[in-house]
Amino acid sequence: MPEPAWWQTAVVYQIYPRSFQDTPTSTWLDGGKAYRENYPLALADTDGDGVGDLEGVRRRLDHVASLGVDAIWLSPFYRSPMADFGYDVSDYCDVDPLFGTLADFDRLIAEAHQRGLRVIVDWVPNHSSDQHPWFVESRSSRDSAKRDWYVWRDGSPDEPPNNWLAAFGGRAWTWDEATAQWYLHLFLPEQPDLNWANPEVEAAMQDTLRFWLDRGVDGFRVDVVHALGKDPDDLPDWKPGENPSRDLPDPPYGHAILRRLRTLVDSYPGDRMMVGEVYLMSTPRVARYYGEHHDELHLSFNFPPLYAPWDAVKWQRRIERVVEAIEPAGWPTWVLSNHDNPRHRTRYGSEARARAAAVLLLGLRGTPFLYAGEELGLEDAVVPKGREVDPGGRDGCRAPIPWDGSPTHGWVTASPWLPWPPDPGTRNAEALAADDRSILHLYRRLLAIRRTSPALRHGSFDWLPTPDGVLAWLRRADGDRRVVIVNFTTDPHDVAVDGSWSTEVTSDGAPFAGRIGPDQAVILRTRD
Ligand code: TEU
Question: Crossing angle, helix 199-214 and helix 254-266, to 10 degrees?
Answer without folding.
Answer: 30
